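Example 3.2
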Amino acid sequence: FNIDAQPAYVTAAGSLGTVNDSGRGSASFTIEATDPESGAVTFHVVTGALPAGASLNSSTGVISGFDAVGSNTTTSFTIEARDTASNATERDFFLIRFWGSGDRNWE
């Protein structure tokens, strides 16, 4: 008897962290999920959008590449983790972007 279960998230829902304008070129965040049957898991944005300039590597779950922003922003999105048997699960995340030359510049 074989049960093919959904991927299980390792990364907690909610905040993935912050990106300061001064460090946006090197900033990256990783979404992790595992397949109980040890298959490959792919990742996709299903609602909302990543911050400007950012992209999600569907194989590794790495979010990177952030454009400059003109104001402090919080971006919310939902990521789907899908295994090779098409079992999927979703989780909500957000990232905070700080603008300006200093860290956490709320001017």
